[in-house]
Amino acid sequence: MKSYKTLFIFLIITFLSFKSAESQTYEVSGLISDFKTNKTLEFVTVKIADTTFGTTADRDGKYFIRLKPGAYNLVFSYIGYFSDTAFILIEDKDISRNIFLKPSEILTESINVYGEDPAYEIIRRAIKYKKEFKKNLNEYEYDAFSKFVIRSNQSKLTGVQTDTTKDSNDKMGIYGILESETKGYFKKPDLQKQIVIAKKETANITRGFALPLIINFYDEEVDFNEFKIPTPLSDDAFDSYDYRLTGTTSIDSTQIFVISVINKSESKPQLKGTIYIADSIYSLMRVDLNNNDAARPLGIKNVNFKQKFTV
User: Fold this and answer.
1) CA 76 – CA 239 distance, rounded (Å)
2) What is the spatial distance between Cα 16 and Cα 36, in angstroms, rounded to a whole number?
3) 252-260: long-range contacts (C-beta < 8 A, 24 or more apart)?
């Protein structure tokens, strides 16, 4: 009877050890860069082929994803570049793999416009798509990367007062930096949840300072509490913005319209910059916008919004 007990215990230990090894994950990480210039590419989409599981590179082009042992095809995609697929075989250790994406090279330099700029019709269709999209959208989740760079003319990091004239704002010393990664959820009618999964800051930043401001550019406005800014696809967007079609690019054989957003006023809180709209369905693909002079929350001079959507 004693030998049977010993055998039973041995089998249990072996089974638990097997389950532990089976659940082990390893990190795949690296840097994503332009094939021609070696310049890093920010917020590149990284997905496992034929699935919805994936991640996004950060502002510096760095990515990482944790996977169980096995073989995977990782697909890297970015507006204006050909997608690339990397075969990854994970056995028993972390893997480092740098990726170089090739430009699609079909970005037009300029578009001559006669009469109404074609950007206006594109924006009309994008607003119509937005309404239909939001009508049918019941819930979603997202991943966001936020970076706050605080500059001051009396930086604690340098201890030296610097020139802060209009032409030398970039010379102001960096007072502090805060970066965070956030996972968010939304469910109709108004259930929202945000979880900060990673955060790092310089030593002089108060812990808990500056929780990430997450904006959905399919909403009607950006809410800063002090004021609200209409988004470029709000129902009354034409009251606040002019638009110019500046070129086209592509992602995964989909043509993308590159549209310049021009604020009509400096006395009213508005945005300015560039948005990217997909041809045929007119969905919003990417946002690169800044606030105007009237939209300076809590004394902050400039806020840069970057957002990217999958096709």
Assistant:
1) 38
2) 50
3) 252/77, 252/83, 252/311, 254/278, 254/279, 254/280, 254/311, 255/279, 255/280, 256/79, 256/80, 256/285, 256/286, 257/119, 257/122, 258/107, 259/119, 259/122, 259/123, 260/119
Examine the domain organization and report whether 181 and 286 are in the same domain: yes
What is the per-residue pLDDT for 310?
67
What average pLDDT does the chain have? 79
**Token pair belonging to 269:** 């809180």
Do 126 and 85 share a structural domain?
A: no
* Residue 6: inside a domain: no
Range of the structural domain that residue 254 is part of: 118-308
Q: Which residues contact 3 (CB under 8 A, 6 or more apart)?
A: none
C-alpha distances out from residue 229 to 69, 259, 277, Å: 47, 19, 20
Give pLDDT tens digits for 299-309: 677 778 888 77
pLDDT tens figures, 38-89: 899 988 889 998 887 888 888 889 999 999 999 999 999 888 888 889 999 9
Residue 5's Cβ-count burial label (10 Å; 0-12, 13-18, 19+) is exposed
**For the whole model, what pTM was predicted?**
0.64
| 193 backbone dihedrals φ, ψ, rounded to 5° | -150, 135
CB 178 within 8 A of CB 205: yes
For residue 118, which phi and psi values (nearest 5 degrees)?
A: -60, -15
Q: What is the pLDDT of residues 81-125, one digit of tens each?
A: 888 899 999 988 999 999 999 887 655 555 555 568 899 999 999
Note the helical H segments in the chain.
Answer: 2-23, 118-136
The secondary structure of residue 311, as a DSSP letter, is -
DSSP letter (8 states) at residue 40: B
